Amino acid sequence: MPAGLGDLGPELKFLSLYGNQISELPTELGALTGLTELDLSSNAITSVPTELGALTGLTWLYLDNNDLTS
Q1: Residue 26 CA to chain centroid, in angstroms?
Q2: Model pTM?
Q3: How many CA atoms lie within 13 A of 5 on its CB side?
Q4: What's the pLDDT score for residue 27?
Q5: What angle do CA 35, 40, 46 make, to 5 degrees?
Q6: Are 47 and 68 in contact (CB under 8 A)?
Q7: How many Cα atoms sit within 13 Å of 53 on the Cβ side?
Q8: How far separated are the first and last CA of the chain, in Å rounded?
Q9: Which sign does the torsion angle of CA 46, 47, 48, 49 carry?
Q10: Using an 8 Å Cβ cutoff, are 40 and 23 in contact?
Q11: Which residues 6+ apart lie within 8 Å of 2 measured at CB?
């Protein structure tokens, strides 16, 4: 994923990265403070970065069908 992902800003409300074989999430996702819905399902994600805790407006987080271990 591009390093500039966090530059999309707080105006972004919904982000779907469904089914992209993503194995690691960039910490820049934590800069998307306007997100209310984040779909990360059907990837190969093994852990969720603590920076996602900054997404205080998040009401839906989809992580099903991943390889989460922590």
Answers
A1: 8
A2: 0.88
A3: 14
A4: 86
A5: 125
A6: yes
A7: 3
A8: 21
A9: negative
A10: no
A11: none
DSSP 3-65: GGGGGG-TT--EEE-TTS---S--GGGGG-TT-SEEE--SS------GGGGG-TT--EEE--S
CA distance 16 to 41: 9
The one-letter amino acid code at 3 reads: A
Angstrom distance (rounded) from CA 40 to CA 21: 10
Where do we find the tokens 């987080």?
A: 61
What tens digit of pLDDT does each residue of 1-39 get? 676 777 787 889 999 999 999 999 888 888 899 999 999
